[in-house]
Amino acid sequence: MTTNAPANALDYNARSRAFKIFSAIVLAIFAIIWIIPLVFALDTSLKPEGEIAAHPTSWWSSHFSFHAYTEVVKGTPIMTWYLNSLIIAVLTVIITLVVCSMIGFALAQTRFSGRITVFGFVLAGLLIPGSILVLPLYQIVHEMHLLNTYWAMALPAVSAPVAVFIFESFFSGLPRELIEAARIDGASWFGIYWRVCLPLCRPAMAAVAIFTFVGSWNNFLWPLLCMSNVDQMTIPVGMATVAGGFGILYAQVMATAVLGALPLFVVFLLFQRHIVQGIAGTGIK
Amino acid sequence: MATTVIDDGLPVAVPDSGSPLRTQRSGENRAGWLLSAPFIVFYLIFLIGPALYGILMSFFNTTSVKSGLGAAVGLANYREVLTSSAFWGSMGHTLWFTVLTTPPLVILAFVFAILAERIRRGRALVRFIFFAPFVMPVTSVTMIFGWLFTAQIGLFPKWLSDIGISPPNFLGTTGWSFITVALLTVWWTVGFNFVLFLAGLQEIPTEVYEAAAIDGSTPRKTMWSITMPLLRPTIVLVTMLQILASLQIFNQMYLMTGGGPGTSTRPVMEFIYDYGFSDYRAGYAAAATMVYFVIVLVVSLVWFVLRRQTRKTVGA
User: Where is the secretion signal located (chain B) (predicted)?
Assistant: First the structure.
């Protein structure tokens, strides 16, 4: 996506070429600053606790090992939290994809009466900063007797107007003739949505799926409120509850931090292109 | 779910019902509503519901320990919130955090994107390095920065000592706590803005730059007369999204300082948390939520208007 021009159009004289070298150097410096916290965290997590106590800021150890990781896995319910986070994130992604793509299709391709009203109504939701409303949301979820269940986490996340508009803009791009043709062939509206249009909007599905997954996995305040039971906690909240308990066992603290970040790093590595394009495509429009 | 209902009965063109066109119209109508219904239900319960219920609660002395609204207290909650120095103090902390984080997060991301646009190789790597922290859970970030900033034995205090500066108490004093949490936030989230700017830059056609080059434009002039004006919608977008995100600060502050020392760094979100959940004064906290909500809503509306305007000027 970046190699559209054989020569960079900005490279037209010696001064701009000098600027290019300057750019590379400045970026390299900042890139190093940016990875130092991650590398040092990883480095600390692999050192024996005794060595950290003696030389806390040393980068080198003669006894690198995964000891802290095995201790964390044995000593904390981190595996349960992984499972909880995964179940909640997958549930949220599936429901969001189905529900938001259906209304996205309806708004884009069917001309039902009240469509403009529904559109404006959902658009207004973009203005509502949902995270601020956790207190009344808590009361509602409490009244529904959903606290300490996966549903308390998954269901509220589905009401995402952004996801609706990602689908809406994607479905709007499909040619009207395609839908007309399917209608003439006798397909039902649901059939058109499910069998004709949905398979064509994989990029939108990928973008929504990844953002919903990352958002669900990293959500902190909401699970902190509605998951008070240790066995129901998600990774970010569970980690916060044990963080203080490690005391000066810094290798274990860092091992926990690394373990917490690991799954999404993998997701990010696998789907980097989708994530970046998703932000670019949805943020700009 | 509703999907099964939709699948079976939707006659396309029923021959015996007079006008097939009208049947088709009503079929389309029904399909549109049925496909929209599940989302509307979620939306009403989990987004509109809390907004309305929050307004309602703010007029009652609701507690979080008992269900139900409790007794009506009229405007007492609002009177207490609006005259509470603790509330306005926490509002001030949230605004101070927004002031501290928005300029670096917008400017650094912009500079990174401009620089990354110039280099030919390694752009993907740079993008990866700046964006990767953004996908980390907040707790991992605060654990790592807590360790890096630990007094005496942390990496940053040690570096400062090495170059002859006596390190400040990063998390022990109010002033430095804000800066520490702001630094962490810049490190954590700059990648998102960076990617938005990169995308904005890529929308600028190369021909414009080529034309400027042929006309003998200097790099600085190209920057000010071409890149900046064409990137204006992205700059507005990133700035407004950043202000909205910073205004909602809770997680990092809660985990790094717990609002301390004392309550001197406590953001509004944590004020609401403390009163609504720790003190069980849900009605009072709901009134605080509504005041805060209105302030954020005003910022959102400003963004909405600005966005429409920039769209119009770009379109024209």
Answer: none
